What does this fold into?
Amino acid sequence: MERLSRSTTLPASVARPTYDRAALRPGIVHIGLGAFHRAHQAVYTQRALAASFGPWGIVAVNLRSPEPVEALQAQDGLYSIVVRGAAGDAAEVIGATVDWVCAARDSEKVLAYLANPEIRVVTLTVSEKAYGLHPATGGLDLAHPAIAADLAHPHAPTGVLGFLVEGLALRRATGVSPFTVLCCDNLPSNGKIVRRLVLDMAERRDPDLARWISDNGSFPCSMVDRIVPAATEATRSLAETLIGAKDSLALETEPFLQWVIEDDFVCGRPAWEAGGAIFASEVEPYEKMKLRLLNGSHTLIAHLGLLNGLEYVRDVMAVPELVDQVRRHMKAVVPTLDPVAGIDLDEYQRQLIERFANPAIAHRNIQIAMDCSQKLPQRIFAAAVEALTSGGEAAEFAHVVALWIAVVRKRMDCDDPRREEILAAASSLDPADPSAAFLAIPGLFPPELVAARGWRDRINAELEALASKSTRNNP
It folds into this structure.
């Protein structure tokens, strides 16, 4: 069977670009060519182009691996997504990408695009750990490999912040206005964090550059939501059946998608609202809702699954006792949220339970459990601090922490940028205070939680209960 390309004749049932791809010109650089971007921002951009065509083609940049770049090139910038829901499976071919670059192989081409005045928006999905955010100071982590390298060699960047700062420096040198930087990663107040880090790096290089960026640039916050499991051979086989062509970049995803964006762009943007994006003056309430209700519950589910030998989220959601734990967690989260305009939180929770239980979506728990040191602070710890400050017990958040510790100890492994510190804590068991070594990991837990002896005792009691249950189940 032929490989998907511009010459492929697609079945009538497959949605596809309705605009003239040959006329599409670059206007967006996206850094982080992963599954989420391809199933989310690129979909919104395709819908925006269909509604209001303009120079908003995406230049897809991957920082490290050349594989997705090469696959996109081989398919003329096309790939398919399969939406799987109660109504069945539906395929769509996405074609909003006009060029593709691996930064590790051709950083000069990336910088040329960033310096080009036709590029007006740079979107980011590089994962939380890629920004080099120091867990204690909230500024640059000078020990982060990419941060250290880019500060030492600013004209030959390797990390996302280095590319942003050098790209902005090149624009300033040629009298070109800054691009808008739109972070789409799961960081609280993500635009504000990225702005702070970019200005920190620019200040260390050239204070005048930092002032220029501060005065003229824009870093809107955004909240993104769509469940996108890692693709498998089964995914690619399903897509091949639906589109009648081989597609090495095929993805499967759920029907639901959401994008809330702070409307603060310095030199234009696509009509993303045509695809359903919500533009708001304040994104943080939506962001907090999603981070704590969806992402926090996902972290809980993932560790329930790993502790109980369940591979997928849907497997956990098929066990009533475990679903009850998810519902209790959500109920504990709600008092820590701000009012969210236009959102019925009861209905939102009901939708989440339904989405997690979608039997067609194979979202692996081990995938969700990656990088917990980067995710727990905003998903679990921040809510725990607010609950304790309001006079609550934060017991459900202690439960999630205990599950995480129990899973790390059970597996004696984790996929995490602080892996060595976490495994060292797992090996340092104090029977009288089994969570102590984890709470002592520098900068991981907020000081308020480290000092909350009663909350720490709850974690220890949860660990004891989990150990007792494991003993009963494995005599």
Notes: The longest strand covers residues 79-85. The longest helix spans residues 284-307. Residues 115 and 173 are 9 Å apart (CA to CA).
